[in-house]
UniProtKB/TrEMBL annotation:
Pfam families: LRR_1 (PF00560), LRR_8 (PF13855). It is a single-pass type I membrane protein. Keywords: Cell membrane, Glycoprotein, Leucine-rich repeat, Membrane, Receptor, Repeat, Signal, Transmembrane, Transmembrane helix. The chain crosses the membrane at residues 660-683. This is Leucine-rich repeat-containing N-terminal plant-type domain-containing protein. It comes from Gossypium mustelinum. Its main location: membrane.
Length: 711
């Protein structure tokens, strides 16, 4: 049989099933994802002398490497032992695999401190994946000191140690892709691996979540930010993904000495074809100074994340007009001045400027930004009214304007944004009624507000990460897996879209699927007046409604019982009156309910379903409210009478005069007075003539007054 490729992955094969492989002349064998526990009988591999590719990932192996015969596969070029239970040091016999150029041993428990003689002899290695082991890095990287072909090295989630100050080595390779993220322990001011000082061809570098310290050098071109050598990257070799987030970097982002322009040269197709910088993540550091204007010249930039730094000054006005920019995250810095004019920007989708010191009005800042999905300018010093052009943001799903100084009424143009699912206008000086047309909002779950993955998938696909056209079938298999590694790196770990929303008495960060399903309206801490619109009953997808700390009057609509997905309802600190509708007991998803500090009266609904979980704090400071969990018993003298399921709003039950009862009483009294007057005039002619004389006198007096004074 001339079978060359055999793929048995993802089955339920056991050791005994491998006897059928013996004697085959295959060059590529994949038996990963099976139940080959413990070890493989090496004898079953006898005769596979032509084997060039062997994949055993995810097979529960624990001691496969202890046989010398395993290392006799001298033609092996690709070896994948990832996601098993292998442990200890790498066996020295692996050094016999002199043709090996792709090695994946990630997801095991291998150990190593300092150079490994086993790996040192595998000088043809090009792709090496060491992630999720117990290697002590970066000292373990000395194993590759004499490797001239190494291009891709993944070593995240290993043990990070400090390199000896006196031990230096100069590598022979020029690495293109390097990942060293999320290692342990995270000692503050760990230094970056020194071999990076000699790298001039880096395309992708990920040093995030390590607490690396130090300054950002002025002559760095931000493909790697540190070490200084990265400032000497060749003109034209431009990376497209920069992640230095969650470290202790400080200093400013350099104003000059950068080199983000240049033409993309032809690149060896055995490695990734890259475009100019598309993703830059410098979040969660201590960077200071002003935001340099050259960032606006990054024509291919898709996502910029500078969250949680100490950057200051104004935001360049051209930043949101970068063609193709989808995500702009500048929150939690010290930016000041006016909001930059992004009017007409057609590409930006997620814009976060919150927790800065921005001032002035919104003006026309985001007029006609039809692609905007998330707009967050909360916790700044913005003033003026919420502009009517907000109705032009047809794609808007999330609007966050809290903790500013906005005044005026809530614009009814918000009701045109049928895709809105999160609205936060709290902690402002808004007045007037709650627009009843907010009931037009669907608040339906939406993928677009919760993820940037779709945008990153777009540019990953456009890069043509690997060109398989001129490769052998075995190289094709190797590069295909490398392609999947890139998808994992860039698609599964993008810059997360996240929203800070306060509900259930706490502030939460919503992202991914939770953000997708989240819907809420927060109008708290304003000066809103009038009654709660009964039309709100139509918001059946809403999960959180906060109308607290306003001047709302009237009663709680019993139609709230139709909000069958609501989890948090806060109506506290208002002037609401009447009873608590017993229909609210139908809200089985309700977790937080607060009507404290109002003028409610009557008894609290019977303690069952969700109402069993609400304590006294949910009802306090309503002097005429009684029943458990309040200490006031409804059966005590001078207590409000207990309400029944069919109770009406009347004065005896309410304690305070209910608005609805007052209106009905006034109307009835008015009608009675008119009927009495009409009856008297009909019975007594004298009073009838006197009445008509009085009416005629008043009419003439008014006519003469108008003629003498107004005409």
């Amino acid at each position: 049989m001339n079978l060359e490729e055999l793929d048995l992955s993802g089955n339920r094969l056991k050791n005994s099933d491998l006897t059928y492989i013996k004697g085959l002349s295959v060059k590529s064998l994949n038996i990963g994802g099976n139940l080959v526990q413990g070890s493989i009988d090496i004898g079953e591999l006898d005769g596979l002398i032509n084997l060039e590719e062997l994949v055993l990932d995810g097979s529960h192996l624990s001691n496969i490497l202890h046989s010398i015969r395993w290392c006799d596969l001298r033609k092996l070029e690709v070896l994948d032992l990832s996601e098993n239970a292998l442990e200890g040091e790498l066996p020295s016999c692996l050094a016999n695999l002199s043709s090996l150029y792709h090695l994946d041993i990630s997801g095991n428990q291998f150990i190593g401190n300092g150079a490994s003689t086993t790996l040192a002899n595998l000088t043809l290695l090009k792709f090496v994946f060491l992630s999720r082991n117990l290697f002590k890095v970066p000292s373990f990287f000395m194993s590759f000191a004499n490797h001239s072909h190494l291009e891709v090295l993944f070593s995240d989630q290993n043990e990070l140690v400090k390199e000896p100050a006196i031990r230096t080595w100069i590598p022979k390779f020029q690495i293109k892709v390097f990942r060293l993220s999320n290692c342990t322990p995270k000692e503050v001011h760990n230094e970056v691996p020194k071999f990076l000082y000699y790298q001039y061809d880096l395309r992708v570098i990920d040093l995030s979540y390590n607490n690396f310290g130090g300054n950002v050098p002025l002559y760095n071109i931000l493909e790697g930010n540190i070490p200084p050598c990265l400032g000497s990257l060749k003109s034209g070799y431009i990376g497209f993904y920069l992640d230095l987030s969650h470290n202790q970097l400080h200093g400013g982002i350099p104003e000059n000495g950068n080199n983000f322009d240049g033409r993309l040269p032809s690149i060896d197709i055995t490695i990734v074809r890259l475009s100019p910088l598309m993703v830059m993540d410098l979040s969660n550091n201590n960077l200071s100074g002003k935001l340099p204007r050259w960032i606006s010249n990054l024509s291919e930039l898709t996502a910029l994340d500078l969250f949680n730094n100490q950057l200051e000054g104004s935001i360049p006005r051209d930043l949101c007009h970068i063609d193709g920019l989808k995500v702009l995250e500048l929150s939690q810095n010290k930016f000041s001045g006016p909001i930059p004019s992004c009017s007409g920007a057609q590409s930006i989708k997620h814009l976060h400027l919150n927790r800065n010191r921005l001032s002035g009005t919104l003006g026309n800042a985001f007029f006609n930004c039809s692609s905007l999905v998330t707009l967050d300018v909360s916790e700044n010093q913005l003033t003026g009214e919420i502009p009517n052009w907000v109705g032009t943001l047809s794609a808007l799903r999330v609007l966050l304007l809290k903790a500013n100084f906005f005044t005026g009424e809530i614009p009814i143009e918000l009701c045109k944004l049928l895709s809105l699912s999160i609205i936060v206008l709290s902690q402002n000086n808004l007045s007037g009624p709650i627009p009843f047309c907010l009931s037009n909002l669907t608040l339906e779950p939406n993928d677009e507000k919760s993820s940037t993955k779709a945008y990153l998938k777009g540019f990953i696909g456009s890069l043509g990460i690997v060109d398989y056209s001129e490769q052998t079938k075995f190289e094709w298999s190797t590069f295909k897996r490398l392609d999947e590694v890139y998808v994992t790196l860039f698609i599964e770990n993008p810059i997360d879209e996240k929203v800070d929303y306060t509900t259930k008495r706490s502030s939460y960060i919503y992202k991914e699927n939770i953000l997708k399903d989240m819907s809420g309206i927060d109008l708290s801490c304003n000066r809103l007046t009038g009654e709660i619109p009964f039309e709100i009953r139509k918001l059946r997808e809403i999960r959180s409604l906060n109308l607290s700390h306003n001047n709302l009057t009237g009663h709680i609509p019993s139609t709230f019982s139709r909000l069958n997905k609501i989890e948090s309802l806060d109506l506290s600190h208002n002037n609401l009156s009447g009873i608590i509708p017993i229909e609210l007991m139908e809200l089985y998803t309700l977790e937080v309910f607060n009507v404290s500090y109002n003028n409610l009266s009557g008894s609290i609904p019977y303690q069952k379903a969700q109402f069993v979980t609400f304590d006294e704090s949910s009802y306090m400071a309503n002097p005429f409210l009684c029943g458990h969990p309040l200490p006031k018993d409804c059966n005590e003298p001078n207590s409000p009478s207990t309400t029944t399921p069919n109770a009406s709003y009347n004065e005896e039950e309410s304690g305070l005069m209910d608005t609805y009862v007052f209106q009905v009483t006034f109307f009835v009294s008015y009608v009675i007075v008119l009927l009495v007057i009409a009856t008297i005039l009909y019975i007594n002619p004298y009073w009838q003539r006197a009445w008509f004389y009085f009416i005629e006198h008043c009419t003439n007096t008014c006519r003469y007054f108008i003629e003498d004074n107004l005409l």
